[in-house]
């Protein structure tokens, strides 16, 4: 079992294994240290950071639907300055990659954040969120228009030498062309999918179940659509893909790898079983051994 | 304290009255560590329906050091059947495994040992279940327990609290048991008991309208009021920011019920 090579390359980073925990579902990491050894993960992506602190959306922010979760957290976060001062020191002894998820309201803010994180010690890479469904006038505009996304990524690319991953929205007609645009703009990798814009109604109060009315749907309910999107993108771009969307176990993860994902992210499942990342990692290893595959890279995109 | 994720074994599960059920779980690590006001997240199915864990106060718990051998390591959840998660919970049977995360949250702050403060416990409906462990921890101190509900079927725990020698007051909105009105109305009508300069620690748990009414009642400085909040939760351990409550502090407008709570000082939160 020790002989399997699970390492994958994402831009300039080599992940020791393909299991990454997704921004927004893993707090700042410290919340999980009683449950798992964080160092065993391929990479850790803390909650998304903006230039200024954000209060987030009014509650209720979460609602369970059939096989899924609707959320409208609204990117509540302490902002860049507070994050660097209060949260970053926690990662000092981390023996895995720290990837920072960030987002802005304007191109200038995106560029500023990328520039500021560029020389922060301990940061391996950046994941640019152009796709949160819960914020008006934010990334969603960039995330839905290939031309704007291209220009934005190009500008951010110039501001950082770190590995740059662009997290794509599924709320578009043609996700493959979005991926192509950000590849042309200079992204090292794409991660997909973020949540699907969705809502739920309470028939007794005749009101929305979320304080923000519309939220993002995640969980097993979205997996087949996410998988299809990862497959489409894998046929359109050459840069690595980090696949996500409703991954609950190793089988789900392997499906994403088969359709072309080099690495995967665990999101919603972290909230239910905080050990999911480690269990998925063990399951992938077992699968490789059982199928006599000595190297994970030989599995990527071998579907069909 | 760092929460654990662990399996427990169902030792009993049954209706105690109307829509209220008692679930007993053998889970020594959590039963030994849980403090009054803390909660657990319970996975009520091993599949995606329901998907998320559900938060529950622990009604009673017996550490492994408990004098009565057969109770050691057991914890009890008194729950109300309201939705899919709790419906599913009623089908759990003796010997079944359930997965828990806990102990979670901050718990109640007790008066210091040197303080002579009296305590007032106020529970609305199923809210009373988060106050029993507290009443146990307060044993030896003068305690007034106010228990309210819509009807007599919603009045829980009276016999248990009676064993702790607390003074018990009951209220039902339909008047089927005790005082007719809400539990806060009853507290107010008994307020003459709490005259003078004595300090009182008030501990309350119940629906938002009850806590709002309470906030309007306990304005005097001699009342220090802690409330335990309920919220829809994603994870229960601080990772998702899904369960927030609005605060009165402009710098931190929303705090997590699961992490900074579930117990808050009443004056710190903005009840809507």
Offer a quick outline of the entry.
The complex is a heterodimer of chains A (about 300) and B (about 270). Chain A is an alpha/beta fold and about 300 residues long.
Let me know the CATH homologous superfamily of chain A: Aldolase class I
By secondary-structure content and strand pairing, the structural class of chain A works out as alpha/beta
CATH architecture of chain A: Alpha-Beta Barrel
- Termini gap of chain A: 27 Å
What does it look like?
The complex is a heterodimer of chains A (304) and B (272). Chain A contains nine helices and 16 strands. Chain A is globular and about 55 Å long. Chain A has an eight-stranded parallel β-barrel, surrounded by five helices. Chain A has a four-stranded antiparallel β-sheet with strand order 5-6-14-11, with no helix packed on it. A two-stranded antiparallel sheet of chain A has the order 1-2. Chain A has helices spanning 79-87, 107-118, 140-144, 146-159, 175-185, 223-236, 250-258, 268-272, 276-290; strands at residues 8-10, 13-15, 19-21, 43-44, 62-65, 68-71, 97-102, 125-129, 163-167, 189-192, 196-198, 201-202, 207-208, 215-218, 241-243, 263-266. The longest helix of chain A has 15 residues, at 276-290. Chain A has a single domain (8-56, 74-196, 219-298), classed as Aldolase class I (TIM Barrel, Alpha-Beta Barrel), CATH 3.20.20.70. Chain B folds into three domains: 4-104, Translation factors (Elongation Factor Tu (Ef-tu), domain 3, Beta Barrel), CATH 2.40.30.10; 118-230, Rossmann fold, CATH 3.40.50.80; 231-264, Dihydroorotate dehydrogenase B (pyrk subunit), domain 3, CATH 2.10.240. Helix content of chain B is 15%, strand content 33%. Chain B has a seven-stranded antiparallel β-sheet. Chain B has a seven-stranded mixed β-sheet with strand order 11-10-9-8-12-13-16. A two-stranded antiparallel ribbon of chain B has the order 14-15. Chain B starts with a strand and ends in a 7-residue tail after the last strand. The mean pLDDT of chain B is 94. At the A-B interface, strand 5, strand 6 and helix 8 of A face strand 14 of B.
């Amino acid at each position: 079992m020790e002989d399997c090579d699970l390492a994958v390359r994402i831009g300039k980073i080599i992940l020791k294994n393909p299991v990454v925990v997704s921004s927004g579902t893993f707090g700042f990491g410290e919340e999980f240290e009683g449950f798992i050894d964080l160092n065993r993960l391929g990479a850790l992506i803390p909650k998304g950071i903006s230039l200024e602190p954000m209060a987030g959306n009014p509650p209720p922010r979460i609602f369970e639907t059939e096989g899924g979760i609707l959320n409208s957290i609204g990117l509540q976060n302490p902002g860049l300055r507070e994050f660097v001062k209060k949260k970053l020191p926690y990662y000092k002894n981390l023996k895995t990659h720290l990837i920072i998820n960030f987002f802005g309201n304007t191109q200038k803010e995106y560029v500023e954040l990328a520039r500021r994180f560029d020389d922060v010690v301990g940061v391996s890479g950046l994941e640019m969120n152009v796709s949160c469904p819960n914020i008006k006038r934010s990334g969603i505009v960039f995330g839905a228009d290939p031309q704007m996304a291209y220009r934005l990524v190009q500008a951010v690319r110039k501001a950082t030498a770190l590995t740059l991953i662009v997290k794509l929205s599924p709320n578009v007609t043609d996700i493959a062309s979005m991926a192509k645009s950000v590849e042309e703009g200079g992204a090292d990798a794409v991660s997909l999918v973020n949540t699907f814009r969705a809502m739920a109604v309470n028939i007794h109060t005749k009101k929305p179940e979320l304080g923000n009315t519309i939220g993002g749907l995640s969980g097993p309910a979205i997996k087949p659509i996410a998988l299809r999107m990862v497959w489409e993108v894998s046929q359109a771009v050459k840069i690595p893909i980090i696949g996500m969307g409703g991954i609950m176990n190793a089988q789900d993860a392997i499906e994403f790898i088969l359709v072309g994902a080099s690495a995967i992210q665990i999101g919603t499942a972290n909230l239910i079983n905080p050990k999911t990342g480690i269990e998925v990692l063990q399951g992938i290893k077992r699968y490789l051994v059982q199928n006599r595959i000595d190297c994970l890279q030989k599995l990527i995109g071998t579907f069909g | 304290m760092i929460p654990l994720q662990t399996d427990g074994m169902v030792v009993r599960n049954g209706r105690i009255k109307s829509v209220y059920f008692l679930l007993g779980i053998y889970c020594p690590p959590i039963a030994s560590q849980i403090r009054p006001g803390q909660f657990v997240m319970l996975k009520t199915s091993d599949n995606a329906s329901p998907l998320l864990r559900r938060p529950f106060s622990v009604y009673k718990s017996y550490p492994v050091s408990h004098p009565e051998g057969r109770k050691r390591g057991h914890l009890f959840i008194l729950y109300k059947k309201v939705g899919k998660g709790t419906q599913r919970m009623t089908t759990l049977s003796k010997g079944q495994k359930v997965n828990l995360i806990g102990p979670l949250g901050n718990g109640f702050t007790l008066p210091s040992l040197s303080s002579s403060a009296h305590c007032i416990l106020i529970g609305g409906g199923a809210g009373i279940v988060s106050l029993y462990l507290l009443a146990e921890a307060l044993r030896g101190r003068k305690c007034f327990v106010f228990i309210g509900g819509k009807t007599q079927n919603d009045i829980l725990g009276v016999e248990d609290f009676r064993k702790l020698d607390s003074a018990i007051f009951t209220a039902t909105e339909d008047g089927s048991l005790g005082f007719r009105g809400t539990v806060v109305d009853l507290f107010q009508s008994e307020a003459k008991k709490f005259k003078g300069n004595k300090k009182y620690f008030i501990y309350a748990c119940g629906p938002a309208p009850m806590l709002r009414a309470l906030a309007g009642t306990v304005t005097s400085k001699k009342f220090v009021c802690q409330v335990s909040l309920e919220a829809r939760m994603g994870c229960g351990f601080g990772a998702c920011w899904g369960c927030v409550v609005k605060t009165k502090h402009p710098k931190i407008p929303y705090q997590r019920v699961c992490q900074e709570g579930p117990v808050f000082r009443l004056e710190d939160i903005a009840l809507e």
